Amino acid sequence: KSFYIGDNFIGPDGMKYLNEGMRARNCLTALDIHNNCINDFGVTYLCQMMKSLPLLTEINLSFNNIGIDGAAELGDTITTLSSLTSIDISNNKIESLGAKYINESVKRLQFLKYIHFDNNFIGEDIFRCLNGHILEKISLKDTSSYFYESFTCDTCQYIRTDKRLHCKICLFDICNKCEEQRKGTD
């Protein structure tokens, strides 16, 4: 139920042929296409293929030169994969904007436990929780049903009222003080 084609440099043309051949194999649960230089053009074929794989739980797309446009297209497709538990999109070129597109999509995936964004030219305005999900900057003025005036910071474990970053997937919160310390270590 797993398919591994990593390190073959198939490019976007190879992804087109792979899409045509794999669409009938809808029982796949794991797909590893790392280091194939599929870039944004190949992502179109990848997304077509992923939509035909409803049982997909793990996908590795690292080292594929995927940019912002590819990340936007992946974000749209990821929402259709409700069984997804793990995504590795590290070592691409999705930048902050691409990370935001994917982050918006993964919020809807209830089983997702792991997302790997490392080495994607993501700026300092993007932080990740302990599970790798992107944290959103918020203020107490932006409160919703699960935001309270005080909370326990998941990093320093102190009760705080100056919440700054939040992960909607893990419900992970970080205070201003810890955010400043993180900026100093990045």
The Cα radius of gyration reads 18 Å
Structure class: alpha/beta
Report on the biggest sheet. Answer: 5 strands, parallel
* Unreliable stretches: 140-148
Order of helices and strands: EHEHEHEHEEEEEEEH
What percent of the residues sit in helical stretches (DSSP H or I)?
25-40%
What's the overall geometry? elongated
Q: What fraction of the residues are assigned to beta strands by DSSP? A: 15-25%
- In DSSP terms (H or I, runs of 4 or more residues), the helix count works out at 5
If strands are numbered along the chain, what order do they take across the biggest sheet? 1-2-3-4-5
Concise structural overview:
Helix content is 31%, strand content 18%. The protein contains five helices and eleven strands.
Describe this structure in words.
The structure is a single chain. Helices cover 31% and strands 18% of the residues. It contains five helices and eleven strands, in the order βαβαβαβαβββββββα. The protein has helices at residues 11-22, 39-51, 68-78, 95-106, 176-185, and strands at residues 2-4, 30-32, 58-60, 86-88, 114-116, 127-128, 134-137, 151-152, 159-160, 163-167, 172-175. The strands form three sheets. A five-stranded parallel β-sheet has the order 1-2-3-4-5, with no helix packed on it. Strands 6-7-10-11 form a four-stranded antiparallel β-sheet. Helix 1 runs parallel beside helix 2 (39-51) and helix 2 (39-51) runs parallel beside helix 3 (68-78). The radius of gyration is 18 Å and the shape is elongated.
